[in-house]
């Protein structure tokens, strides 16, 4: 990898988190695949040689458990989902250069090679650990086969992950009060010998790696905290059949018998162990790149150069798998002497109508459902990439979708494209004979610069924004110059204005291609351009379109209100139906907001008593200047001599702040320690009654109702 700006001379590979072959795809998944697809396309518009690869994640206990429940072979079970994903992605214009799966031969061989190499290098050792065991089922209980309590946060934890609580990766034996998910009986812990990867050896390497890592800030900051807490070695084997076998030493068919009886304890019987799913899953990134190379030829794209030498590796992932990608994965790559990722961008979650996406409650927009409703994939691509920053949570509602489509795509982009091309066609049968004006050339160059900068900042919203803002400028330009008044009296001037508009229209198409590839291609064809807009580079936005083109059609259509009403009703009914089944077992993909309150209307204040809303709007930048954090109150005591003031100690992750708050009369201070709160961290320091206040606690209303979070936001996390 280089530290140069994109485009570089080295080939790039873009990957996204592997879809787990266990269920239908929904909008939460699509955000990642569409985002990575758009980013990979955007790199190509800069002239960066790029491959976009992925594959299905076939192994692990959820697949094994579900296959068992259905009485089918796990391989068949996972393959069926794999094939469905392979079909679905192109329907959203997500076009992988290669899409493999973790159970195929390429990944199996490569995984075993890499593990063997780590072993040769001395990074793997054996250790006796406590493994949950179900005596009735006569079976060890890896990962999802066991449930219990998280030792870190006390929440209910499942197997290898505290997915409802602190989100930590859990090692085998860590779950407290283990219960077997096979029989529901309490599990016992038994001693077993397993293989460990010495992640702790890579502490210095990882610290330096994170300092140089590009992408989103959450992918750098969270792992820094984990490193500070001390890295634990990582158990990389499991007692189960489904997965990639732990490799025997090269040239040996099986484990030597004396190794099995080594020492006092029971040595690891390698023939019974499979690799933990998180070992072979990221290796699929490499395997899929290798398959691509083998298909197009290494002269065209050389996977070994990318992964073993100097390629630009970019991972786009969900923020729930940051630890796997910024700690375990780079340590493995370093251990075998491979190249390391240049950028890791971790996306936020998707909420639906302001509430957590929940597959068990059917509060989700399914991929198939979206397509069945007849909406063009580019509309969803545009919504998901431009509604929030990459690491922000994005809310989806049909109302917001309608507003975005009708406002930006229909009203701004589509409207500009259609009126410009129609005017040009009717008066000039295409592009008028004139040169692009200096003003318009500079404006297009500016948009190209913005797009280039956005790619280098891993900012998809900025890429889409460069296109939409240019179309906005186009609309203003045409309005300001009123070419329809000029055609008779000032024909040269009219030709000039329309020539400019046609050029802007083409530039908007080139800029929008990563986000809305189909619509950009349709415009390309309306302009009479040959070939594919996907092959165009940003600079082509300044090349003149062909002299003649046909009558254009409108490329975007408004979404009507009754359509949205109908979609909202469908969603509501569906969620209500799922709720009736009482399926509230927490089998949710994403964090859920607490909506048990129910009586929303009852909490509404009489608006006559409320402070009027501010008329003046602020920009998003102004909001971003506020550093608002989740905190936990550690202590609270009244300040002597002050009737209303209390002195609080608030933990905000990085440090503990002393703040003064006017809540002495309004709260029982003894109740506050342990409560989460929201703190404005970059408030100017102040001194009140001789006590320094370093931050401001946020509260609502006359009673100083303290703001808090209702989900799993951790102390120190930023409010955005
Ligand atoms: Zn936890």
UniProtKB/TrEMBL annotation:
Taxonomic lineage from the root: Archaea, Methanobacteriati, Methanobacteriota, Stenosarchaea group, Halobacteria
Compartments, as annotated in UniProt: Cytoplasm
Keywords of this entry: Aminoacyl-tRNA synthetase, ATP-binding, Cytoplasm, Ligase, Metal-binding, Nucleotide-binding, Protein biosynthesis, RNA-binding, tRNA-binding, Zinc
EC number: 6.1.1.10
GO CC annotations, alphabetized: aminoacyl-tRNA synthetase multienzyme complex; cytosol
Family membership: Belongs to the class-I aminoacyl-tRNA synthetase family. MetG type 1 subfamily.
Chain positions of motif 'HIGH' region: 19-29
Gene name per UniProt: metG
GO biological process: methionyl-tRNA aminoacylation
SUPFAM superfamilies the record matches: Anticodon-binding domain of a subclass of class I aminoacyl-tRNA synthetases, Methionyl-tRNA synthetase (MetRS), Zn-domain, Nucleic acid-binding proteins, Nucleotidylyl transferase
Protein name per Swiss-Prot or TrEMBL: Methionine--tRNA ligase
Domain of life: Archaea
């Amino acid at each position: 990898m280089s530290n140069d700006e994109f485009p570089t001379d080295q080939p790039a590979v873009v990957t996204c988190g592997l879809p787990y072959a266990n269920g239908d795809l929904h909008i939460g998944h699509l955000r990642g695949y569409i985002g990575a697809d758009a980013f990979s396309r955007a790199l190509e518009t800069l002239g960066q040689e790029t491959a976009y690869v992925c594959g299905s994640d076939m192994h692990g206990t959820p697949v094994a458990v579900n296959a068992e429940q259905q009485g089918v072979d796990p391989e068949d079970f996972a393959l069926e989902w794999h094939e469905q994903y392979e079909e679905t992605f192109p329907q959203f214009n997500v076009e992988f250069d290669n899409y493999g799966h973790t159970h195929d031969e390429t990944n199996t061989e490569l995984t075993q090679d890499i593990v063997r190499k780590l072993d040769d290098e001395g990074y793997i050792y054996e250790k006796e650990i406590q493994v949950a065991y179900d005596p009735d089922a006569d079976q060890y209980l890896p990962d999802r086969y066991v449930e219990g309590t998280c030792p870190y946060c006390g929440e209910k934890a499942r197997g290898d992950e505290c997915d409802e609580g602190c989100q930590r990766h859990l090692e085998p034996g860590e779950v407290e009060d283990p219960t077997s998910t096979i029989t529901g009986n309490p599990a016992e812990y038994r001693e077993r010998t397993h293989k460990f990867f010495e992640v702790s050896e890579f502490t210095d390497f990882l610290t330096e790696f994170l300092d140089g890592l590009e992408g989103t800030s959450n992918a750098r900051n969270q792992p820094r905290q984990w490193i500070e807490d001390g890295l634990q070695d990582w158990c990389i084997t499991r007692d189960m059949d489904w997965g990639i076998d732990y490799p025997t030493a090269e040239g040996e068919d099986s484990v030597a018998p004396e190794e099995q009886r080594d020492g006092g304890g029971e040595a690891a019987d390698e023939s019974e162990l499979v690799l933990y799913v998180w070992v072979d899953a990221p290796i699929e990134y490499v395997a899929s790149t290798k398959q691509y190379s083998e298909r197009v030829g290494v002269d065209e794209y050389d996977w070994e150069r990318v992964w073993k030498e100097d390629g630009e590796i970019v991972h786009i992932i969900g923020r729930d798998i940051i630890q796997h990608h910024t700690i375990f994965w780079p340590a493995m790559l370093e251990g075998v002497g491979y190249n390391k990722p240049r950028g890791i961008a971790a996306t936020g979650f998707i909420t639906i109508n302001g509430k957590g996406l929940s597959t068990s409650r059917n509060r989700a927009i399914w991929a198939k459902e979206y397509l069945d409703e007849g909406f063009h994939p580019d509309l969803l691509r545009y919504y998901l990439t431009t509604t929030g920053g990459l690491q922000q949570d994005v809310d989806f509602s049909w109302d917001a979708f309608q507003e975005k489509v009708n406002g930006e795509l229909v009203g701004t982009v589509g409207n500009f494209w259609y009126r410009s091309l129609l005017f040009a066609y009717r008066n000039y049968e295409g592009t008028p004979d004139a040169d692009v004006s200096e003003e318009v050339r500079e404006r297009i160059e500016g948009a190209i610069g913005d797009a280039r900068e956005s790619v280098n900042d891993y900012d998809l919203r900025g890429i889409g924004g460069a296109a939409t803002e240019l179309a906005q400028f186009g609309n203003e330009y045409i309005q300001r110059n009123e070419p329809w008044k000029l055609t008779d009296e000032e024909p040269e001037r009219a030709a000039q204005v329309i020539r400019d508009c046609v050029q802007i229209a083409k530039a908007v198409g080139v800029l929008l291609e990563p986000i809305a590839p189909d619509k950009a291609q349709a415009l390309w064809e309306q302009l009479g351009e040959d070939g594919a807009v996907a092959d165009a580079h940003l600079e082509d936005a300044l090349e003149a379109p062909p002299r003649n083109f046909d009558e254009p059609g409108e490329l975007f259509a408004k979404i009507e209100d009754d359509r949205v009403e109908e979609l909202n009703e469908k969603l509501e009914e569906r969620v209500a139906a799922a709720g009736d089944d009482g399926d509230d077992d927490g089998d949710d993909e994403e964090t859920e907001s607490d909506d048990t309150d129910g009586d929303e209307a009852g909490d509404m204040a009489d608006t006559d008593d409320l402070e009027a809303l501010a008329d003046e709007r602020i920009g998003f930048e102004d909001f971003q200047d506020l550093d608002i954090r989740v905190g936990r109150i550690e202590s609270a005591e009244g300040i002597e001599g002050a009737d209303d003031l209390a002195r609080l100690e608030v933990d905000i992750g990085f440090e503990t702040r002393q703040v003064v708050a006017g809540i002495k009369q309004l709260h029982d201070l003894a109740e506050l320690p342990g409560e989460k709160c929201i703190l404005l961290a970059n408030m100017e320091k102040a001194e009140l009654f001789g006590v320094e206040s370093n931050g401001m606690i946020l509260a609502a209303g006359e009673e100083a109702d303290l703001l808090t979070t209702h989900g799993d936001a951790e102390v120190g996390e930023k409010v955005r």
